[in-house]
Amino acid sequence: MMEIVTLAHGAGGRLTERLIENLFKKYLNNEYLQQGDDGAVLSLPGTKVVFSTDSFVVNPLFFPGGDIGKLAVYGTVNDLAVMGAEPLFLSLGLILEEGLELSELEKIIQSIAQAAEKAGVKIVTGDTKVVEKGKGDKIYINTAGLGIINTPNNPSGKKARPGDKILVNGYLGDHGAAILAVRENIPGDFTSDCAPLNELVKSIIHEYPVHAMRDPSRGGLAATLNEIAKQSNVGIELWEEKVPIRPQVKTLCGYLGLDVYALANEGKVIMIVPPEIAEKALEKIKAHPLGKDAAIIGEVKEAPAGLVYVKNRIGGERIINMPLGENLPRIC
Amino acid sequence: MKVAKKIVVSGLVQGIGFRPFIWRIARKWEIKGWVKNSLAGVEILAEGEEENVNKFLAAIKKEKPPLAVIEKISVIPLNLSGNFETFEIIESQRDRKGVLIVPADLPVCGDCLQELRDSSDRRYQYPFINCTNCGPRYTIIEKLPYDRPHTSMKIFPLCPECAKEYRNPEDRRFHAEPVACPACGPRLFLYDKEKNLLAKDGEVIHKTQELLKKGFIVALKGLGGYHLAADPFNVKTVLLLRQRKHREAKPFALMVKNLTVAKKHVYISKAEEKLLTSNVCPIVLCRKKKSSKIVKEVSPDNDYLGIMLPYTPFHYLLLEHFEALIMTSANLSEEPIVYQDDEVFLKLKDIADFFVVNNRPILRPVDDSVAMVYKKSPVILRRARGLAPLPLKVRGMKEGILALGGQLKNSFAITKDNYVYLSQYFGDLDNLPSRLAYMKGIDDFCRFFEFTPQIVAYDLHPGYFSSELVEEKYSKLKKCPIQHHKAHLAAVVAEKRIKAPFMGVIFDGTGYGEDGMIWGGEFFVAFTPEDYQRIAHLKYFPLLDGDEAIKKPWKSALSLLNEVQVDVANLIFQDIERMELEFAQKRLAKQKIFTSSVGRLFDGISALLGLKTTISYEGQAAILLETIADRSERGCYDFTILQEKIPYEIDFRPLLLDVLADLKKGVNKKVISGKFHNTIVEMIAGLGKIVNKQYGIQKVILAGGVFQNRVLLEKTFISLKRLGLKPIIPSYIPINDQGIALGQAYLANKLCEE
Ligand SMILES: [Fe+3]
Ligand SMILES: [Mg+2]
Ligand SMILES: [Zn+2]
Ligand SMILES: [Zn+2]
């Protein structure tokens, strides 16, 4: 018989206990979880602590290149990493919908365990709730993460300066395209870029004074660069032919009328660095497996302050707007 | 008895020889005192015999210079001073605020042309000849009042001879601010791409003519910016220009030597002639003659050629050796016209082979205006040179409204007491240079007209740049969002001063609706000038993929087919990638965005007929559909008006089934297009009849981009008139999105009263 999540799994009784023992502890176990208390007591080396949280709702739960579990780990790990922190600990909150197959949940937990190991973080505390059927979307995950900063470089969205170069560690839009392809049932070679960026970031941040660093997840490059342009009060120029985008992703966007720059990424980092170190930093990024397709994709300008635009081969300059979230036509 | 009066003449009275005119009639009637330019217009202090002063006043009205437009003359009695022994023209000074009328740029006048061709004149063949009756204005004015030190001519000190003319009230050049001659004025230079100087002054014209004859593309500095000139009789050149400008099929405008030559190439009616030779000197869309040798690649998609006559002395000199030249705005697609000399070499290095530059700076870029004649009246399609920034009088308009306009074909407006100043044209606001020009334009207007916005009126669309601008820059002002199609309607009401009740038919591409849907086939009724009730609309149908649907009319066709459950897309759209087509079909069912756009209906039908499945410029599919339409066709397709609830819905599905049946039968596409046009007309007439019957309304205002279609316009007029209804279209504000800023201002004025 197929085992599914029932309301009792979240009631705090025997079934809950079984879930913790057979699933969570089985896959996620470590000395902190083993303490079995209401919270984890952590010793944090270093002085500056970064604390970040993120919730994950994704349809479908499994997609080429990843699943919601991986996303939940890497999402928070990457948020910490781009703050210049070394991620150490995560919390894991699950909201399950009654009826979710236990085998599916197991796959997700396994994936979480693998991801945590790959990223070098420990899940140290957690919680599970079950909602009635129809009140959730199979599974929602929240993770919160702690990391420490042990470098004097602390990048910030306010620090982009005219002349700075904009680096990205590889192809953009892969995650958004993979999700869309599954959802819209479009065949083709689409794989999420879902990956932990902490190691890659670490290799750069200790060596180079990165001015600004972000992971262009939801809202993609468009949202991230618009935020930075506003925060730093600078213009950002992108070079169309330099931005790495896979041809199939471009085609998909053409089909759907979507702005390829607004597609989500889950394993990409944007670094804005002083021009004199740009090439060296690029080489270093390229040396890392997650950065082999890295490129310098543009430059920070003094004007037009607060705007992001992309320059094409023939010199045309199109403004990249903050994504609206809804694809409304504007041509009258 | 002697009396003293202060006379203030407001209106378009500066920069057109108004003060010397006053000086002359003052002398005639033995008036003493003075005249000067002021911010209000022209101010006069007149002392003299009462009878003479009255005759003087009458003469101001009766004998005013041809270009003057007098809005108001106010007369204030003063105590007689007896201090004046002469009548003088005195220098302007700053004083109180008033209605500011900035003269638009003017084409060279007949007197100047005569001198241009007179070998004994000291300005013989001088390309910058001008006088008080002609020449640059708006494009060279830094600030008001309009005096030479406030223009870009201030860098050219007058030579003694020009100075004499400038100061002599009896001279045609008295206070002609841009006055110049070969000894003291601007000069012409010809460069190659690498900025090597090839020729100067008189030589330039001759050399440029040679280059154009050889098939080169030359960038020419004109009045409001640079043009790209090329030989329209040379296919290779035309195609080269298309290739370099990345402009596949969008028509190029022509400058034609004179009317006689123009008539060899296009049909010109009396009204078109009047428009072509008016002071606006716009590009006028005229019907091509079959016999014309102008290559069809100049305007491949339609039966019209956009032509204009020379309007600067430089153009006249250049065209002496040509019947016509292509004169297209020098820019990259969607960008504003290039107007700065350092910019031109950078921006156009891959387009132009040679550059004709002069050293008179252009302070404000202004494109050529575009117009067509409909029923003997002009219909403005692009309001720019010669029209901007002439104000429109709107009674009751209050001060302080900034209307931000639309997104793609844009202009903004500001309001002063009883006036609206509508800006020149700006292109797509997602294009960086266009957006910057638009923002600079707003600042420029604020400074120029000493305007501080208090209310900001803008389109409802959350994705328009104006919405962002309101959030970021004008969040402290009183905000007045205005629905797109209501603004279209209000613009006509404002321009034509239409009294309620009336009905509005707004057929358009797309605009954000009050219900979150994308409107574009809207019928309104109004019993007051500002309150519009949506009485009917085209039945909603799904709109795929945002702007992409507009660039790919086959997507509109697909949506329409889906509405009638007919699956023939695979047969019809042979040129569309199978996969893309299938995905689009699958996604239709999931669409959450619906539209009532008549523009998309035109697109869809055009694609179904195989005319254009993917467009290369805005409106191309609809233009092709119009071009092939058999105008003599009387047949009509079926449709129904669903009247269960207001707004009524016009169900287009019977029409679609009829079109498909005709297609299947192999009926000629010209006939199908003709019948389709007739059906749209019948929809308008049908609603007109209903509204007339229910509310007794007779006035039917037509606006929106779809009505740039002449076949539709013509047939709609005939049909409405036959029903005893009164169709109305705008004249001096564009019928497309460039007009909506006026409508926004008008509605904000009425609605933001409290
Ligand atoms: Fe519109
Ligand atoms: Mg977060
Ligand atoms: Zn003149
Ligand atoms: Zn001179």
From TrEMBL, chain A:
**A Pfam family name for this chain?**
AIRS
Q: Where is the PurM-like N-terminal domain?
A: 36-149
Looking up PANTHER family in the UniProt record yields: CARBAMOYL DEHYDRATASE HYPE, HYDROGENASE ISOENZYMES FORMATION PROTEIN HYPE
Q: Which family does it belong to?
A: Belongs to the HypE family.
Biological-process GO terms, alphabetical: protein maturation
Lineage at the top is: Bacteria, Bacillati, Bacillota, Clostridia, Thermoanaerobacterales
Q: Which CDD domains does this entry report, sorted A to Z? A: HypE (cd02197)
InterPro entries xrefs? HypE, PurM-like_C_dom, PurM-like_C_sf, PurM-like_N, PurM-like_N_sf
Residues annotated as domain PurM-like C-terminal:
161-306
What is the scientific name of the source organism? Answer: Carboxydothermus hydrogenoformans (strain ATCC BAA-161 / DSM 6008 / Z-2901)
Q: What is this protein called?
A: Hydrogenase expression/formation protein HypE
UniProtKB/TrEMBL annotation, chain B:
Biological or metabolic pathway of the protein: Protein modification; [NiFe] hydrogenase maturation
Alphabetically ordered keywords of this record = Hydrolase, Ligase, Metal-binding, Zinc, Zinc-finger
Q: Name one GO molecular function term.
A: ligase activity
What are the EC numbers? 6.2.-.-
Q: Which part of the chain is the YrdC-like domain?
A: 202-386
Q: Might you name a Gene Ontology BP term for this protein? A: protein maturation
The record, for PANTHER family, names: CARBAMOYLTRANSFERASE, CARBAMOYLTRANSFERASE HYPF
Indicate the family of this protein: Belongs to the carbamoyltransferase HypF family.
Under which name does UniProt file this protein? Carbamoyltransferase
